[in-house]
Amino acid sequence: MYDVIIVGAGCVGSYLSALLSENGLKILVVEKDKNVADSVNCSGIIGLESFNGFDLPSSVIQKIMKDIVVHSPSGSSVEYIPKKPLAYIVDRASFDKHLHVRAVQKGVSYKMKTLVEEIEVKDSGVVVKLKSNGQIQELQSKVCVLATGFGSKIIQKAGFDNISNVVQGAQVEASFPGLKQTQIFLGRKVAPNFFAWIAPADEGRCKIGLIAEKNAAGYLRDFLRNDFVSSNVHSISKIKVSLLPMEAIEKSFSNRTIVIGEAAGQIKPTTFGGIYYGFLCADIAARTILNSFELNKFDESVFSQYELEWKQKISEEQKVALNFHKIFSKMNDKHIDVIVNLARNNGVAGFVEKFFDFDSHSSLISAFLNSPYKKWFKKEKVS
Q1: Euclidean distance between CA atoms 383 and 250, whole angstroms
Q2: Do residue 222 and residue 358 come from a single domain?
Q3: What is the mean pLDDT of the chain?
């Protein structure tokens, strides 16, 4: 009998496991992949506050993200250079592995290359049915946490609703000698309703990716052939595609069970970053689980506090971001061109600097939509 079984050895699962283990609980993490970080598909851009607030490893930082260049559909661009760095760009695989090692050092056990077939919640605990090396095994715990990432079938098998508002993220790694600034590309032909990026990594490498409602891999192949990319990039890796939720799960808890991270839709609908929200919600999950052990009570009356707290923290952020996405989705390429040119010629850097927060975008969005700049987002006034 374990105290907690966590399904998923990603960064959020490992982070949560360490929090619980250092407070005296017996923790097992179960992972379908052979090695930690085998399935990672992430730009590796993490806000500065995440490193300070969650005690994250500085050894995995590859670059400091100091500025951004935004490219319009027609090829014009605007550069944003803030007074202080925006974020860190990390080696995401090393990042996950470091958190795994730290969890092991705190007493967490891992069971790799193991698929969770079924989860059965009983009055006495949770029975987790596993398949490893062709063998079926059943383990028991008092609590189960689903930190699988988005798209795992076990979420619905465990009785949780599916998130239907889903997009695709596609990314490659490549060589791009001399790249210093993170590049953002907008346009219907590049990534309709979303954006593409080129983020510098270590030793002349970069990550190139985009978000799309469908056919993200096809859009990325086209993007890799454009002049800016094809003239600078070589040694391109295989395309990785991931499903990403656009909204939060309706209910993230039940008796003895919690859903966390991307599986719960704890993600920013603007940039689709999930690390900050995932860790923020892991802190809340840890407090809730530890409280359940203190009370020796593991039903919904206790675990409902987890959802109440995390939705209070991030639901408004997600709502504002989704509303802005609806506005952005109605813009055609001509409209986007106009906005980029206005931004370059009207000196909005000071305004952005005042309201910008890498991990919380609602303040900047709300400020824009309630300022004289709001006319930029009204098509009939700028086209």
Answers
A1: 39
A2: no
A3: 92
54-78: per-residue pLDDT in tens? 888 888 998 999 999 999 999 999 9
Residue type, 258: I
Domain hosting 127: range is 2-322
Question: Does residue 244 sit in the same domain as residue 334?
Answer: no
CB 274 within 8 A of CB 284: no
For residue 102, give the 3-state DSSP assignment. Answer: helix
Give the SS3 label for residue 93.
helix
What CA–CA distance (Å, rounded) separates 29 from 237? 30
- pTM over 0.90, yes/no: yes
**Same structural domain for residues 313 and 327?**
no
Which tokens in the block code for residue 19?
Answer: 């929090």
- Count of domains for the chain: 2
Closest by Cα among 120, 105, 119, 136 to 27: 105
Clarify whether residues 261 and 365 are in a common domain: no
pLDDT digits (tens, 9 = 90+) for 91-146: 999 999 999 999 999 999 999 999 999 999 999 999 999 999 999 999 999 999 99
With bands split at pLDDT 50, 70 and 90, how would you rate the model's confidence at 383? Answer: very low
Per-residue burial over 200-211, b if 16 or more Cβ lie within 10 Å, else e, is bbeeebbbbbbb
Co-location of 346 and 274 in the same domain: no
- CATH number for the domain harbouring residue 232: 3.50.50.60
Place of tokens 């300022």: 371
